[in-house]
Design brief:
alpha+beta; 2 strands; 5 helices; globular
């Protein structure tokens, strides 16, 4: 988690495509040139920060939506591309709040 925090900070802290700057879990690292990719930045358990920084310089920080769109456009059909052009991407997706529900343990044991 600390490594991802540092990586997000190093790359500017917001999505380079839509400007999203919310929760850290929504950020991914997109390699600008896949041919120069040495390893997947999200799987760096045994690598030093120095090595990770070298790989991060080959990446751009993007939100998960923009990352999926970037990969989908490479092999997508024209209908999807038309919808993509209409997408504004300025509002981050917000999950609706879940209502708090209390369940009595005795009610569960009755079954």
């Amino acid at each position: 988690f600390r490594c991802k925090q540092a990586a997000v900070k190093l790359l500017g802290g917001s999505c380079v495509r839509c400007g999203y700057d919310g929760h850290i879990a929504a950020f991914q690292f997109h390699h600008k040139d896949p041919k120069k990719k040495a390893f997947n930045v999200s799987r760096v358990a045994q690598k030093s920060w120095k090595v990770i920084k070298v790989e991060l310089k080959k990446c751009e920080l993007v939100c998960v939506n923009c990352h999926h769109i970037a990969h989908a456009t490479a092999y997508s059909d024209p209908r999807f591309l038309a919808e993509l052009k209409r997408y504004k991407g300025t509002e981050p997706f917000k999950l609706p709040r879940r209502p708090s529900v209390r369940i009595r343990t005795s009610a569960l044991l009755a079954f």
